[in-house]
What we know:
Layout: H1 4-23, E1 29-30, E2 48-54, E3 57-65, E4 73-80, E5 90-94, E6 98-103, E7 106-111, H2 114-119, E8 123-127, E9 131-135, E10 139-142, E11 145-151, E12 157-161, E13 170-173, E14 185-189, E15 194-198, E16 203-207, E17 216-219, E18 223-226, E19 231-234, E20 243-245, H3 247-251, E21 263-269, E22 279-285, E23 290-295, E24 303-306, E25 308-309, E26 316-319, E27 322-325, H4 326-335, E28 361-364, E29 367-369, E30 374-378, E31 383-387, E32 402-405, E33 408-411, E34 414-416, E35 426-436, E36 445-453, E37 458-462, E38 471-473, H5 486-503
Antiparallel strand pairs: 1-36, 2-3, 3-4, 5-6, 6-7, 7-8, 9-10, 10-11, 11-12, 13-14, 14-15, 15-16, 17-18, 18-19, 19-20, 21-22, 22-23, 23-24, 25-26, 26-27, 28-29, 29-30, 30-31, 32-33, 33-34, 35-36, 36-37, 37-38
Amino acid sequence: MKHPIQQIILLIFYLVFIxxxxxxxxxxxxxxxxxxxxxxxxxxxxxxxxxxxxxxGIYLQETVKDGHNKISYVSQSKVxxxxxxxxxxxxxxxxGNKILVLSNAKYYFIPKPLSKAKKNKITLLFNENEVSKIVxxxxxxxxxxxxxxxxxxxxxSNKHKLPExxxxxxxxxxxxxxxxxxxxxxxxxxxxxxxxxxxxxDKLEKIPHLTPSQTHFFSGSNHFLYDDDTFYLIDRxxxxxxxxxxxxxxxxxxxxxxxxxxxxxxxxIDSAEDYESNILLDTMDTKDGxxxxxxxxxxxxxxxxQAAYLNTYKDLYVYNDKVYDTWDFYWxxxxxANPSDPxxxxxxxxxxxxxxxxxxxxxxxxxxxxxxxxYSFEENSRRLEKKDPPTYLQLLTTKDYIEIREKQIFVDWHxxxxxxxxxxxxxxxxxxxxxxxxxxxxxxxxxxYYFFTDGKKVYxxxxxxxxxxxxxxxxxxxxxxxxxxxxxxxxxxxxxKATAKEND
Length: 504
């Protein structure tokens, strides 16, 4: 066991080493925190799949793009589908776990990702002429009967007949479409009723008092399922799926029906003092002069307030002829402070400087925008003061992530240096180069390469948000280069890196 002083010295050397390593990578970019997890980069990306018909067979191709900017290629690969030979095969749907394919008038499941598609046999489901309707890659109407079809880990399909379901079928909520929803639970409806289907035990249960044609679902601090006169709460944080009828809580406050006419919204209320106290708040406007509030930590039901939204952005409120943002309004309606109380503090916002209140909304923290002018919130005066737009908000002035105006190039809100271009730039595409794979102690680091051509030369920008000057690829001809093509971009990347290494 080392002495404490030795441990401290080792720690200092380690920190200095990390600092030097980071300082030596001027072009390298640390992946955003939401991507740099222990699961690593690829596990936070969502690949797209397509079928390719080639001379020697049909292939399933997987194309992965960066989850941060949505345009930079990360990888592309393919696997041959030995069980499918039809050149006219096509993808019908993709539910995130498996792909439904129609080939030679038959439906098949192909597992994801490519490693499973290569290892497991493709599963034959039904003949095309047997199936009259398919819902979300899960439910098949076969010869007048609904079936739930699942794909097992061993490459086989399980078909569960559901004789209770009649007529048109629609999925209201499941884990594929709603974040943080229960994995094995599907809420669905047919022409007659609303149901819960637990696919882990193949059980279909009818939810009482709901009219299918009126039923709505909303996911916020919790999940809410309701029609015009019945309102259910589903606790999204509970270990077990349960739904609770909270209609009577509305009834006690004088609200008996009309829920489907209401508009619901969710807001994150961030506490600068304590991250753990951040709150997900739901608001519901019932169009009768009331706004109803529900939070994930304070109320057990909705609470009504005589108030209105300032405008269509729904993040500022008019209450007693004063304007409040969500944070202060949330706490004020809890405290119900009396202006005559010595401890009362007016938390409203003075918007007398605002040019266009009908468009005013909060951008980030204490920065507001009314589509014409930026404002900062001054705590002492509680007044919105005009200000120049922060650098990181200039993205509002550009339409697209990549924008080319004559000889000008904008990547996000950064204008790139194009002095070396002889003609109008053409965007060839972008690709990611992983510099350091993620590890337990060092963050994953990548470079983003953006390639352009003017028809005479090829140019590369490396992490253009930091480096706006291009590198010229003198040894590469722009002739016959494909636009937005992974193989072309990979070739350009490898040639650029090889040239850079030779020049070191």
